[in-house]
Amino acid sequence: MKIRTGIGIDVHRLETGLPLWLGGVKIPSDKGCVAHSDGDVLIHAICDALLGAAGMRDIGYFFPDNSPAYKGIDSKILLKKTMDTLSSNGFAVSNVDSVICLQQPKLKDYIIDMRECLAEIMELGVDDIAVKATTTEQLGFEGREEGISAYATALIYKL
Ligand code: MG
User: Fold this and answer.
1) Could you tell me where the DSSP H helices lie in the chain?
2) What fold is seen in the domain 3-158?
């Protein structure tokens, strides 16, 4: 069995009055992500980790942000398509770990909802998906609430 790892990073700008989607869950927030899609920075980072582990380019290659087909798209669909791409190439996912960096709101009450949502799409156990959140102690663009970032790693294997 060949085991492979991947890393994914995504950043979006935050603006007042936009919805904030993270891990497929709508988070109550004054600000949301400016994006071509729904701006789910966590799902985008996870997609890139999965594609990277498979050695298959990146999310922008598969779902271009200048394509009308993906305007306002629910990122859960992008994650499902990414999983389909991996499985059609003989890959299965072992686990995903991730971190979201933002100053506010606090995400602790939504972490389990995100893990359950991601696990359902990816057909994995909730224990196979870790989602963590941290502030950046008011430092940098996340700390100034100008933007949000997410980091993910994935372990996949080919039987
Ligand atoms: Mg993105």
Assistant:
1) 41-54, 59-62, 75-88, 111-122, 140-143
2) 60s Ribosomal Protein L30; Chain: A; (3.30.1330)
